Amino acid sequence: MDVKVTGKTLMPGLQEFDEQDWALVRLIQTGLPILSRPYQVLAEQTGLTEEDVITRLKRMQQTGCIKRMGVIVRHRELGYRANAMVVWDVPDELVTETGRCLGQFEFITLCYRRPRHLPVWPYNLFCMIHGHSRDEVLQRLGMLVEKCKLEFKYKILFSKRCFKQRGAIYQPVQTSADKTKINLTGTR
Amino acid sequence: MNLNTLEKRLLNEFQRNFPLAKKPYAEIAMKLGVDENLVLQILEKLQSMGVISRVGAVFEPHRIGASTLASMTVPESELIAVADIVSSFVEVNHNYEREHKINLWFVVTARDDKHLQKVIREIEEQTGYEVMRLPMLENYHIDLGFDLKWT
Description:
The complex is a heterodimer of chains A (about 190) and B (about 150). Chain A has about 190 residues and is α+β, with helices and mostly antiparallel strands. Chain A has 2 domains: about 15-70, Arc Repressor Mutant, subunit A (Orthogonal Bundle); about 75-160, Alpha-Beta Plaits (2-Layer Sandwich), CATH 3.30.70.3460. Chain A is built from 5 helices and 7 strands. A 4-stranded antiparallel beta sheet of chain A has the order 5-6-4-7. With about 150 residues, chain B is α+β, with helices and mostly antiparallel strands. Chain B has 2 domains: about 5-50; about 65-135, 2-Layer Sandwich (Alpha-Beta Plaits), CATH 3.30.70. Chain B has 5 helices and 6 strands, in the order H-H-H-E-E-H-E-E-H-E-E. Chain B has helices spanning about 5-15, 25-30, 35-50, 80-90, 115-125; strands spanning about 50-60, 65-70, 90-100, 105-110, 130-135, 140. A 4-stranded antiparallel beta sheet of chain B has the order 3-4-2-5. In chain B, helix 2 crosses helix 3 (about 35-50). The longest helix of chain B has 15 residues, at about 115-125. Chain B is elongated, with a radius of gyration of 19 Å. Classes of the chains: A alpha+beta (about 190), B alpha+beta (about 150). Strand 1 (about 5) of chain A pairs parallel with strand 6 of chain B.
C-alpha cells in the first residue's frame, strides 16, 4: 500500500536501516540526554563516533524518517485541556482535496485518511484539534467546516481520560506484554 | 502556570530544527543570548515539571517501522482494567478514553507489520475485545510542532 504525505507518494522501506541505526532510534525515542554533548553520550552507548551519530541522525531527517527533533511538549500540562478527534465520512473522490484543506491549519496536529469499517465506522478523514477549552475546539471546528466546506456526516470525539502518552518505542525484542521484559530506556 | 519569557521561548521555538551539532544546547543558548548551563537547567526543570515529555525525535509512522491507530468498544465498568492491559504493552504509546460508544483509542507502533499484528492479536486475546485497526492511508498535515499561545 502506498503511503502519501500531502499527496506525495512515499515508498515505505525506502530507507534501509542497519542495526546501528535501530540502536540509535531506540536510544533517542525516549529522549536525548540533557547534557552539553548529548550525541557523545549516544556514541558511547552505541559504539559509534559522535560524528557518525550526527551524520546518521541528519540522514534520518533528510529521508523523512524523523519528522522533527526538539522539545516535545505536553499539551495538557500547558493548559490545552480539550482535545478532540474529529472524523468525517467524505466521499472517496473528495477526500484528498478536503484533507489538504484541513491540513493547512496550524491548530491541527494531525490530519489523516484512514480506512472505513462498515457498518460500524463509516468515517475516513481524521483530524485532531487542541484547545484550552471545549468551546475553543468547537469554535475552531466551525471555522474548518466553513473554510473546507465540510458538509459531510461527522463525529466529534473529545478525549476523556489519558491512560498513556509518550513517544513511540520501537522494540528490539519480540515479546511485548511481558512486563518483566519491558525496557523503557531502549538500551539492550 | 508561571513561565518566564525564556522558558516560553524554549518551549515554543525549539520544537523542531534541534541542532545536529556537537553542542546543540550551546547553539540554542546562543540564539537566546544566554548561557548553555541555563538552557540545560531550564530544560531539566520543564521536564521534571512534566511540561515537556522529552527533548527528542518524532518519527514518521510508515517511514520506519509500522504503526496504526486502534480502537475498542469496552463497557464502562471494565474500561480501566482493559486500558491498563492495553497500556502495559510497550508498543502502545498513546491510549485515551474518548466520548463515543467506541471508547478506547490507542496507537500501536512496532518495528514491522508482522510484529504489529501480533501485538494487536495479543491485546485482543488478553482483553477479550475486538480491536478495530485504523492505519494511516494518507497524511495531509506536516508536523511542525505545536504553536503555543500565551494568553
